[in-house]
Every structure is written in structure tokens, then in C-alpha cells.
Amino acid sequence: QEKSSHLSAALFGEDCEISHDQLYELLKYAALGKCHNATQPSWCHIYHQRHLAGVVVIVLHEMSQLHFYKFYLQFKHLRRVFRHRFTLTPSTNFLASLYGEGANVKPQNTAQGLTSTSSQCIPKSSDLQCDPIIRKYGEKKQGLTSYTLTLEEQKKNDYPIKGSPGCKGYIYTECDQQRTDSSPLFGLDCEMCLTAKGNEVTRVSLVDAQGQCLLNELVKPESTVVNYRTRFSGITKKMLLPVKTRLSDIQTRLKKMLPHDAVLVGHSLNADLQALEMIHPSVIDTSLLFARNGGRRFKLKFLAKAVLGKEIQCEQKLGHDPAEDARAALELAQFFIEQGPAKVAELNLEMLLTTEKLAEVSQKKAVLQPQGCGVQKQLNEPPHLSKPCFLDCLQVTGQKPLLLGRQEMDSSGLCQSNLSTSNKQILQRALEDVPLSTFSIIQFSLGPEYIASHLLAGLYEKVRSKLTDMLTIYAGPFEESFCLKSVKKEFGRCGPIQSLTVVTETYQPYVCIQYEVLEAAQLAVESLNGAEVAGSCIKVQRPITAAMLDCDVWIKELELDIENEGVIYVAGLKESLTETDLQEEFSQLKDLETLFLPKDLQSGKHRNCCFLKFQKSQSALDALEVINGWTVKGSKLRSRNALASGHLWRWIWQVNHSNGKQGGNILDEKMEQLSDSEQDLRKKVKKLDHHIKKLYRSLQDNTLCIVLFPGVN
User: Fold this and answer.
1) Which of 23, 433, 567, 620 gives 614 a disulfide partner, CB atoms 3.0 to 4.6 angstroms apart?
2) Mind spelling out the 3-state secondary structure of 76-92?
3) H and E: helices and strands count for the chain
4) 365 pLDDT band (50/70/90 cuts)?
5) Nearest partner of 466 among 527, 382, 554, judged by Cα
6) Closest CA to 184 of 205, 208, 200
7) Is the pLDDT of residue 103 over 50?
8) 216: closest CA among 310, 138, 324?
9) Does residue 459 contact residue 62 with C-beta atoms inside 8 Å?
């Protein structure tokens, strides 16, 4: 959660799972910006990174998402303030990648800071044999055909290949003539917008070998634009309104314009060709041509400045100019061909990049860093990690990270274990020290006594059991000869049904229905209790168990959850309706931002319900009034406020597909032994939530704050 809206990410249902690498990407870019090879995260976007006052990571040791849902009501502050929730996919220890947990790291004496990085990262001009460019191409000049990608290289780098299953329907340029070293070069670049389909082309530029622009055309996407990405694409809604040109028109024109022996040049050209849905057999990719160690790539902007002495993609411009980028890529390829690999290696680009970034950091330090925060000594890479831990990266750039709690950092930059400090003491130190640091890791702990396997298994069973009960309703009584099909149809209008059974132990028959989504069960209770169904006036209620006594409180708090703000649930859809159909049906609703059509995570089949997210809460309330009773292609719709549209949706799906008992309280010896520990846990969790609230309120505006539940495995 940021104390100002800078973070943008898609967070419905299936999207609420990320990898450790993706979280690492976010933290690295938030803390370093474009320094130290940091780039925008691939899965979300940080706007105005330079305005971030700092990054704070709060680690809750011994706790996982299980604890969050078991003690949901106790995490009063956490669930009302932190807008985005993710499940971290199982992986190696993420904490180790943050600060080398468990490693006694020693500092390295480096007189010149970043510029003293070993030759494995920066090639020395006196020893060009180590340079990746020399290793790949040798030192002698060669013709352009030596630098075109082979078929294997194209496959490896996700280029569209003729006959590939993923390229069905792609247009082949039919440039099949054999290439020679005098074949014509053409620079190509596209700008894309995000649509309902994915990335779609909105602008295409083609330049010839003399740098003359042959094509610079706006393109109307086929699907509805979700994000114009104006900051990068330069494209706005207004620009595309009068445009009639479609992708098929561009494909035809490019096919006619390119000679049969044309060689296309671009920077990460695979993305452009994929967006164009075109296949071309002969390409030079400048992101691969100017190779770096470990397969990493230089950005086009840096190469243009370092190699050509040209400034492109200037910040004062609105978005990138594809003609400028195409021309820059073309000139880079021409420089490489004319000057040869040895000349390029002598430029020592890695060193130039390092020096440039260090200069940028030095300029920013006066503004971003409090007085007295000196340059820290660089730490060696922990031997058990494949890349430097995160704190290494920060210290290399001269920042002074703060590490408090289980692992702490002393004045020399060493990570030291400290297990004796209480959570209250950690909070007090954090309140004093966090404002003095641009990156802080604050670690709280439940204690090792709370990680026993039987305790965790008991907690999981209680959460599973409660969620199952919340998904279950009982309805009746019905007549002896009631029509089960009509009952299923009526209750099915509230949402997807997981199971339906007839209860015969009662004087008159009842039905027990377990839904797949929480909103469906609540909608059934609210709309069908007291209604006439299958010829009987029925009562609809949830199971009555000790765990369900606070069910109404849960429902109320889930509605207030910030994750469900501006989100409504719609049921009664025909399963034959596609996402495109629904987009068209709901397009008239004001401020509609996103539509999420749940599907079975195993079969991939869509359900008869959806979630709609609106830009404003009032627009969501207005939509509820419009949609209730609305008929879409013969189906009468029902809707209500969302309860589990985001992260909890995935958990509920797991509950529905777990092998545990269905409904009811779990009463066994382990559960009874658990009750005392659970009471203590509840108190501890409430205190931790209060600590987080106090720490969060003390943060400056524009601080990115992340709370991590690392679990025990």
C-alpha cells in the first residue's frame, strides 16, 4: 500500500498470485529507480518513482496467509488499509534474496565503491577476450549476415516462426530471397496499448538505411483499450478517435514495402513482430547484438547515448517516438557492422552504464538521503544465492538500508542475528529510525512456539471448515414431491453451485447447497429467504455452528474490506456468454474499470457470475440498482456488493477443491489442545496489527509499504 496512489496492478481472482522474482522486481525498482539496472516491474507499474519518499517492508515471521484469514477480524487495520494482496508462489527463501538471511556476510574493502566491481561484471579494456561480444563474434569486422539471428536464436527469444503453433494466422512477409552483406536494412518499431485482448499495436514506424521514414502510422486496435500507456506510447484516446487504419492494413503495406531480401532491425524486435502478428525470416536485434554478461540487455536509450551520442526518449516528450527508436536501432546496427566487434567492446559499455548510474545517484542523494548517511561498503554476494541479496544492491548505490528485528545490520553493514528483542522494542526503534532511511525492513515475530505442525494443521482445518460453512446454505421445508430441478435452477441464479443434496432426516425435505463463491450464498440468504420456491414458502439459512456465530460480522467486514471497494458481484449469467459479450452488455455502466469472469482453475470453464470493478464507489452503488432485475439474453440478473473478489476468491476455490470434510465443526483432540494456543495467538495478532497501524501512520506520504507473511516453509 502506498500513502499516495502510485501503484497500478490488475488484482482480480486469478491475478492475485505472483512469484518471488516479481516481488523482488517491484522492490528493486521502487528503491533504486533506473539505477543499478533496475527496470519497471513486468507485472505492475509504479508511477512517479522519483517521488517515493521511501520503501518499508514489514516481515511477520512465522505467519502465512492462513493466519491472515484465521484472524481476519483481528487484522482490523491491515485489511482496511492495504489495498493489494498476493499469494507468493512456493520458491526458495525470499528473505534470503532480501538480506541473505542465515549468512554471516563480511564486508569487502572497496576504495572506489561501485567502479571497483570485479572484471566478471565489467570487462577491462586491456583484456577484451572476456567481453561477451568478442566471445560471440570475434574481433574482426564481418558483414551484416553474420549478425542476423539464426532460427534457433529466434526461437529462444520468442520470435514468431513460420509453422509455429503459436503463430497461427500470422502474416508471412514472403521475403525469402537469400541475404547477402549488401541486403537492405530497415529499422522497425511499434508502440502498443493494453487492450482486452492484450498488447495491440497503436503506432508503427519503418525507416530505410538512410534513416528516411517510410511509414509512421497510427493503428486502431481491434479490442477495447484498457490502458493507453501514454507515458511510454505517447498515444491518447483523442489521437485514435479519427483513425480508420487497422492492423490488417499495416500488414498489407509492410508486405508490399519490404524487398524480398530485406533485413529488419529493431531493439527487442520480437515484441514488435508479435504485436504486428507478422513473420519475417531475417532480423538483427540490437538488444542481443550489444550483449552483456548473463544474457542481460542494455536499454535502447542508453545505447543511443553511449554509442551514437544521441538523446532519445527524452522525459519532456510525451511517450516514445517509434520513428526515432527505429532510426536509433538501425544506426546502432550500422555502427556495429562498420566498426566491428572490437571497437564496440572497447567502448566498455558496462563501465559507462555503471558510471552514469552512480553519477545519477550522487545527484539525488542530497535530496533523497538524510544528512549523515554515508556510503556503505559493498557486501560480498552470499555464497548460497545466485544473485546479490537486495541489501547489497542498495549499499552499492550508496544508500543506507535499515534492518530491524530478527536480523539486524550493524554500522559496518554486517547482518547479525538478534532473537531477543521484543516486538514492542522493535516498534519503538522503527518509529525513530525509519524516517532516516529510504529503505527499511522491519521484522516482527510470533515466536517459534507457534510453528508446530499440529498447530498449523489445526488452524488450517478451522479456516477451511469456516469458509465451507459460509459457502453453505440450507433451504426448506419443501413438499414431499417437490421438483429438485426447479430448486436447483432458482438457487443457481444466485451463482455457481458446487454441490446440492437433499436432506431427508427432517420431517419435511430440505436441500443443502454449497456454492463456489461467497457472494452466491449471501445472495441466496438475502433474496430467497421467505420466498416461494417449487410451490413452498421456504426459509434459507446457513449452518448453525459455534464458528458461524460471528458470520454476520464477517460479511459486514468483508463488504468494508478495501479490496472490495467499488466492486460488485453479478449472478444469473448464461455460461455461454463470453467476456466480450459481457463487456458490450455492461459498457453503458458509468466508470466501469474492469470485468472479471471467474473460471474453474482446473478446467478453465467460465462460471455464471462475474465481478465488476468501478473507478468510484458511488458508481458501483448506482450500478447495483440498475443491474438487479436486468435481463441479459434471456437471463434475469441478481447482484450485490462483492465479498471476495480478489485474493480471498482463490482461497475459496481451494476450499471447494480440498479433500476435507464438508461443513460442520471439527471436534477432535488436536482442536481442543489448540484452543489455548489460539487465544494467545489472537491477542498477539491484535497487538501486531496495532504495531503496524502505529508504524504505518508514522510514515511519510508517498511511502511504499509492503507487509510480508513468509510462512514457515
Assistant:
1) 620
2) HHHHHHCCCCCEECCCC
3) 25, 30
4) very low
5) 554
6) 208
7) no
8) 324
9) no
Q: How far apart are CA 567 and CA 646, in angstroms?
A: 10
Residue with cell 559499455: 349
Are the C-beta atoms of 709 and 86 separated by less than 8 Å? no
Cell of 493: 441464479
C-alpha dihedral (290, 293, 294, 299), degrees to nearest 10: -40
**Residue, of 678 and 384, whose pLDDT is higher:** 678
Cell of 355: 558510471
| pLDDT, average across residues 195-224 | 93
Pairwise CA distance, residues 109 & 130, whole Å? 24
Question: What's the pLDDT at 113?
Answer: 25
The pLDDT, as a whole number, for residue 317 is: 65
Whether the CB-CB separation of 574 and 634 falls below 8 Å is answered with yes
Measure the CA–CA gap between 371 and 438, rounded to whole angstroms: 12
- Retrieve residue 2's grid coordinates: 502506498
- CB neighbours (10 Å) of residue 181? 10
Q: Is the pLDDT at 392 greater than 70, yes or no?
A: no
Helices (H), 117-226: 132-137, 151-156
**Position 120 pLDDT exceeds 80:** no
Nearest to 379 by CA among 105, 665, 98: 105
Distance, in Å, from the CA atom of 33 to the CA atom of 48, rounded to the nearest integer, reads 10
Report H helices in 529-632: 551-560, 579-586, 617-627
On whether the CB atoms of residues 277 and 249 are closer than 8 A, the answer is: no
C-alpha cell at 97: 534474496
The helix (H) or strand (E) run that includes residue 187 is: strand 185-195
Q: Has residue 491 got a pLDDT over 90?
A: yes
Q: Are 494 and 571 in contact (CB under 8 A)?
A: yes
Averaged pLDDT, 659-670: 45
Which uninterrupted H or E stretch holds 704?
strand 703-708
Mean pLDDT across 66-79: 91
| Residue 487: count of CB within 10 angstroms of its CB | 22
> From CA 654, how far away is CA 64, in angstroms rounded?
16
Please report which residue ranges of 409-517 form alpha helices under DSSP H.
423-433, 453-471, 484-492
CA dihedral 42, 47, 51, 53 (to 10 degrees): -60
Question: Which residues is 55 bridged to in the sheet?
Answer: 439, 704
pTM score > 0.70 for this model?
no
pLDDT at 362 > cutoff 60: no
pLDDT at 93: 65
Q: Does domain 142-339 have CATH number 3.30.420.10?
A: yes
Strand order in the sheet with 54-61: 402-404, 439-445, 54-61, 703-708
List, in sequence order, every beta strand (DSSP E) within 298-370.
none
pLDDT tens, position by position, 522-567: 999 999 999 999 999 999 999 999 989 999 999 999 999 888 899 9
* Strands (E) located in 241-285: 263-266, 278-279, 283-285
Cβ atoms of 272 and 325 within 8 Å: the answer is: no
Phi-psi region of 672 (alpha: psi -120 to 50; beta: other; left: phi over 0): alpha
Residue 316 is predicted with a pLDDT of 61
pLDDT of residue 132: 85
Answer yes or no: are the C-beta atoms of 187 and 327 closer than 8 Å. yes
355: how many CB neighbours lie within 10 A of its CB? 14
In the block, residue with C-alpha cell 556495429: 336
Render 354-389 in DSSP notation, one character per residue: HHHHHHHHHHHHHHHS-TT-PPPPPBPPPTT-SS--
What SS3 class is residue 683? helix
